[in-house]
Structures are given as C-alpha cells and as structure tokens.
Give the backbone structure.
Amino acid sequence: MPVWSLGYWQSRERYKSRDELLDVVKEYRARRIPLDNIVLDWSYWPLDAWGSHEFDPAFFPDPEGMVDEVHGLNARIMISVWPKFYYTTEHFREFDRKGWMYRQAVNDSVRDWIGKGYTGSFYDPYSRGARELFWNQIREHLYTKGFDACWMDASEPDILSNADINYRKLLSTPTAMGPSAKYFNTYALMNAAAIYNGQRSADPDKRVFLLTRSGFAGLQAYSTATWSGDIAARWEDLKAQISAGLNYSLSGIPYWTMDIGGFCVENRFVRAKEGSEDLNEWRELNTRWYQFGAFCPLFRSHGQYPYREIYNIAPDNHPAYRSMVYYDRLRYYLMPYIYSLAGVTYFNDYTIMRAMIMDFGEDKNVKSIGDQYMFGPSILVAPVYKYKAVKRVVYFPGEAGWYDFYTGKYIAGDRYLEVDAPYERMPLFVKEGSIIPVGPELQFTGEKPADPLNLWVYTGRDCVFTLYEDEGVNYNYESGECSTIRFSFNNNTGELTIGERKGEFSGMLKSRTINIIWIERNKPVPFSPDVASDVTVTYNGQEITIRKNF
C-alpha cells in the first residue's frame, strides 16, 4: 500500500462543499494534528446525475483547484466512486449500448432514496470491456483532476437496499460470466480490478489505493482494502468490530478498516447538549473507538452527524480530545514499525492485525479470544468497549513475559490479569523480546525520513526485527528498489546487532542517527518519544554491534 494510506484519514458523511472540505484540512494543520488523507464522500454530483462523475458547480466550482489545494497542504484526497448510474446520464447510455447494464431496476422503475427518488442501475463488471469503460469514465472525469484514490461504495452490489434474495438475483443479472446466483459475491473483486488495472496502465509510477465496502478472496491483489460497512455508533458494535477485523485477517486478506465512531448515529447523540450524559457517552465512545482504530491496519474516522473531526467531538481541554490526539501522534511515531509490517505483508504474506491464535497457537487459552490481539509481532492491543470502564481483563500468553507500554513495568505471562484502562489510555503491552523502531514526530507520512530512529529494545529474550523502507508512493520496489536493515538482540550476551543495509532506493538515507533504549525487567522505561537514549550511534549502512551494560 502507499505509505500515506497508513496515516490518519478524516472523513464524514459528507463534505457538502469545497470550502467545508478544505477547512477541515487547514484546521488539522493549524492544530498540528497529523493527517494524511481527506475523503470526499458521495453527492458531489448534481442531484439528478448520479453516475455522471461530474461535480455540482454550485458547491464544487473548481474540483481540480480543490485537489491542488489539498496537495498544497501536504495531504491526499480520496473520492467516492459508485458502480451506479441514473438512466438519464450519458455514462449509463454508454454501458447500455453495449449490453453492460443490469436492466431489471430500470425496467421496474426502482427509485432510490435521493430527493424525489431517481431510477438507475449498476454496470456489469464481469465484462472486460465494461471494466475498461468504467475506468475510462473515471480517468476522464476524476483521475485527471489529481484525485489520489477511489472509494468504491455499494459494491455488494447494493442496487436496492434490503431487497429479498430472489429479487437481488434478478437485479444483478445477467453477468458476462454467468448467473448472478453463482458470481454475485465477487462483484467487489471485479469492480476493483477495473480501476486497479486501468490506473496501473495509465499511470504506472503511482501506487493504486482502493477502498471497497464489500470484498472477496484475492482482493489484496488489486491494492484494495475493505471496510465493514454502515455500522452503528453503539458499544456493542465497537466490540463486534474487534472480532470482525480479526476474522477478516484470518481469512488471509490483510487490509481492513471500519468507520471509527460508527456510521449510523442514535438520535440521542445527535441531539446531545453540552453537559448532558448523552454527550459524555458520545465522547467516550468515540475516544475508545479511536484508540482501537489507531491500532488497525488502516486508521480512518467516518460517520453521520455529529461531525467526526477530533476538534468537533470535544474541545481541546477535554480528555477525549487529548486522548485522540495522543493516539494519532503515536500512530505516526510508530510508522517505521507499521510500514515495515506493510513490507513483510507484501513480501511474506503477513497480516498486520493478528488474532492471538495466529502467534500463540499452542496456547489453548487464546483459541476463543476475540477482544484482544497482536498488532504486528510485538504489541498486544486490548481495546476498551464498555461505557465508563476503567479496567479490563487481559490474557498474557505464557510464551514470554510482557511489558506495559506506558510504564515499562514487567508482567509475567501465562495468566489473566485485570489491568488499568483510564479514560485517556487503552491497554497496550509489548512482548518480552521485541525491537520496536520509532521515528520522529510527523504531521504527515512523507514529511521527513525516520531520522533519528529510536530502537526500543524490550529485553529478556532473543529477538529480531527488520526495518523495511522504500520510496512509499511508486512501484519501484517491485524491481528491487527498497532496503532492509536487520536488528537482532542476543539476550545472553546483551548484544544488539544492527546489520548491513541490504538494497537501496532513490532518496534513501545513507547515514542516520540511531538511539537505543533498553527496557529490562528491573529497569522499567515509560514510553516517550523524547526519552533519553542509553546509546547513540551513527549508522552508515555497515554492520554495528552494541553491547548492553549489565
């Protein structure tokens, strides 16, 4: 995935004008809250022209200029693209002339929920020609304006929400490959292929990123992630997202995300007034959800009113605001670790979000754990999903001991333990025998390279971690233009070896400062990006060995 996609995304349903969208990016920059991507959701087109890929000039008079301004603020912009077309649009007619539209909804005059209701249908992505036409329409009307990524909504396909299964089959047929009953679930896969293959052909030096509301096995081949749809802003939905993300990762598709805060909102939250219990609960729900979201493969807030920007959820003197900003910044400090996990995901079929059974399969106690997980090989994440909870039970596998991320305190494994979970913090723990590379403070992923690099070495066991780096935005890594640095720690000798750098790429750091922080059972070190290092070395790509003082 492009490196920017691993940063923070801000979205809402929806930004109704150019100024609304740009003001959000400007406010994040003014507050120094890290941000990489802003999302333009649906209905940027004229009311009666869904599928035209044209912008309503009353609200988006200069879309290309809007994109340029977002880029000038060092952010990316993703745009919502649907496989849906009103029958009155020229794009519908282009598909229909070739027999590439599902006609049942039009024949039955099925109306949607917009305004007075309009009639349209979805295209058939099972035809190669239809996929090429879909991309060409997007390229001509959207991609050439500079948009960085596509959000492919309603890709179930959702031709008529809540239709019974037999009518859904009729609405989605015939496909170019056969009956809809056989191929229905693969719609999102074929739809993603249209844009991925089209963009790679038209612009081969720019990494594709796609987000789709439905998925199917193999989706990652098209640089596509899936989100879990229009979930509700409720505590039980927050809890359900934990196991949903883990099951998704267990299926072998590595990139998953959700609407932080829940998409659909209860009226009591919409109407909540300052000082009310409902507003207190809304802020706490978003805080807990945001803490969890910072440790998912993709980090993305989205939903209906109330607005989802951090500063709209709570004022800057509120614990909710402080906590959300803390985890946003923490995500960026951990970017060397996270991007290295993305590298091993590509090269070695890894997943970033890991059910406990993936790493501790011989431990019978982890088999049914669905509310805590590993983020990469080292960080145990225990989200809080109950209102007003300030503690929760965590299981610590016995394969190793564990360190509290915030205090550095050592915890023996092979036990359940009730741990503190104050409002502003989600329980995080680091496995004994871990190396976590931490970078400098960032406002966006491409702001500066990871120099100095802090290596947090959690001693007690031998361990290895490989830092992966490349240019972050193009496909040069496919031809070997990337680098790795292997860090290994021998617990018996106390030696940390920073291995010889393998590979190179344009713009690579030839020399960097590496700070080493030792964490030991009898020497707890609270996590802080400004912690004083135990050892500092200058690394020029050659192997270095550093011995820890006993």
